[in-house]
Each structure stands twice: as structure tokens, then as C-alpha cells.
Specification:
By secondary structure, the chain is of the alpha+beta class. The chain is built from seven helices and 14 strands.
């Protein structure tokens, strides 16, 4: 029995596709691989991966283990955004263990397309899979190829997909970070409303030269009740293109709203019904997003 650092196990699982490393990590986190699988499925449900069901930590073929290209792309985006300190592990060139050198299994890293992840695999009776991410001109794309007939076809299809994406789409800036997008009513505060903004700039990947109309709608349960702290997440902005939801952004308050005087609270109380009401600010925002 040997002791292996967690960092080396992560390299083994993410870069080398080591099944033994994946199982060791699963058992270290949850006690058993079965319990870890329960956690995996709970996380999949939390992330909205509706087409995914995990049965093990390795990806070994199992009749009940299924996923979709869309779910894998969504999971990849979550990993890249949530774990920027761990994401570079996917691009580690290789590792030497017990005097055996093993290279990263992802062929996309050496394809000259700006790739820095994520994972290549093969599943019996299904084929060759590749989840890739690449950056060109400060634009990141995530692409997924599943069920290819060979390693060569897998890489060719991935390169074709990324090339099409980088040439056909562009990032369109919609709103700056901290820009006030709307105001939410506040009950019992020094002021009757507070600004709403996104923590980060909001941009959207759009077809080049597209004239598609975007619709933004902000909803919150309100009025909010004082005191309200600056930076509190209280609303959600949904952006749609036609019938397709393309972006969902949490919004935070832009200022502190202390509790108001007794007279302010009494005045607010006279005009507020008992219980919260969902407020829709979409109409006011529509003009801003079309500018």
C-alpha cells in the first residue's frame, strides 16, 4: 500500500484517465465509490444535467450510465468557471509514477487550436469521446464529440467543430459589471428601492452579423425587506433569443439600504399586501439590451 498525494491523483484521473486514481479519489471523498456516485448524481441534478445518470466514478460502461453532449458541455463550463485553480490540471503534459512515464490522453492539446482541456475517453460498444475547450483571440469555446468510430475521426470532428465555432460566432457585450439594470422595491428602508446589477460583465456568444432580437427579463420576489446589504443576490435575469433561453444571470443589490424611520416603515406598510409577489422588470430592460 502506498500513499499518493491528492494532486497526483487528480493528474492521474483528469489528464491520464487513470481509473485507479478516479476510484481512489471517490473512496477518499465519500468512503465508497457507490456513495461517491450518489454525490455525483446529486450534483448533476443541481446543475440541471437532465440527461445524465452516473453509475461509477470511472466512466466504465454500464447500462444505467448515460449522458448527453449538451450535459457534458454544461458540466465543462461549470468546472472552468468554478475551479479556475484546478482547471489547468486537464492540460498537464504527463506524469511519472513508479518510474513509468504517462502522457496526457487528450490529443486536442497538441492540435494547435489553443486547447487547454478537457478529457478524451473510449467506451466499449459506444465509441470514442472527446470534450474539448480552446481559446482563440480571448474567446473560449467548449465542444463535445461523442461516439466517433476511431481516435482519428474523433480528433478530426473536434477540430472541424472548433474551427466552425471560432469563425461563425463572436462575443457580444451586453452590460458592464456593476451597471444598474433595474431597481427593486424595498419595504421599510431609508429608500424605497435599490439598484440591481451583475457582478461581472455580461456578454453573449452570438452568430456573427446576427440581427436576432434578444429579450431580457428580470424577476425577483419582493418587495425586499430592509435592511438590505450591498451585494446581496436577490434577482435573476433571463435572456432569450426567440424561444431559446441563452443566458441566466444572478443580480445583486448595488447599495446598502438601512432600516428606515418609524414613519417610513408605517408609510410602506400602508401600501404593501401581506406576502411576497414576483416582480417582472423585463419591459424596462428591453430597451437597454437592444442599444
Amino acid at each position: 500500500k502506498s500513499n499518493v498525494r491528492v494532486g497526483d491523483l487528480l493528474i492521474g484521473a483528469l489528464a491520464i484517465s487513470g481509473n485507479d486514481a478516479a476510484i481512489a479519489l471517490a473512496e477518499g471523498v465519500a468512503g465508497t465509490e457507490g456513495e461517491f456516485t450518489v454525490k455525483m448524481n446529486a450534483k448533476a441534478e443541481e446543475l440541471g444535467l437532465t440527461g445524465t445518470s452516473f453509475r461509477n466514478s470511472t466512466g466504465f460502461s454500464d447500462p444505467g450510465q448515460v449522458t448527453t453532449a449538451r450535459d457534458m458541455a454544461q458540466l465543462s463550463r461549470y468546472i472552468i468557471r468554478t475551479f479556475p485553480n484546478l482547471y489547468p490540471i486537464f492540460a498537464v503534459p504527463g506524469i511519472e509514477w513508479s518510474k513509468i512515464k504517462q502522457r496526457n490522453r487528450n490529443p486536442l492539446l497538441d492540435a494547435g487550436v489553443g486547447a487547454d482541456g478537457l478529457h478524451a475517453s473510449w467506451v466499449k460498444d459506444v465509441g470514442y469521446h472527446l470534450v474539448g475547450s480552446a481559446v482563440q483571440n480571448n474567446q473560449r469555446l467548449i465542444a463535445v464529440v461523442m461516439g466517433a468510430s476511431s481516435e482519428k475521426v474523433r480528433l478530426e470532428e473536434m477540430r472541424r467543430l472548433l474551427d466552425w465555432g471560432f469563425h461563425s460566432f463572436e462575443h457580444r457585450a451586453l452590460f458592464a459589471a456593476d451597471a444598474e439594470l433595474a431597481r427593486a422595491a424595498v419595504f421599510g428602508g431609508e429608500t424605497g428601492s435599490v439598484g440591481l446589477a451583475a457582478r461581472e460583465p455580461i456578454s453573449l456568444l452570438m452568430p456573427r452579423n446576427s440581427q436576432d432580437k434578444l429579450v431580457a427579463r428580470i424577476t425577483y420576489h419582493g418587495p425586499l425587506r430592509a435592511p438590505v446589504a450591498k451585494g446581496t443576490e436577490v434577482a435573476q435575469m433571463e435572456i432569450t433569443r426567440g424561444q431559446l433561453k441563452v443566458l441566466d444571470v444572478p443580480l445583486v443589490t448595488t447599495a446598502d439600504v438601512p432600516v428606515g424611520t418609524m414613519w417610513q416603515r408605517a408609510f410602506d406598510g400602508a401600501g404593501v399586501l401581506v406576502g411576497d409577489t414576483a416582480r417582472d422588470l423585463g419591459a424596462k430592460l428591453l430597451a437597454k439590451i437592444q442599444k
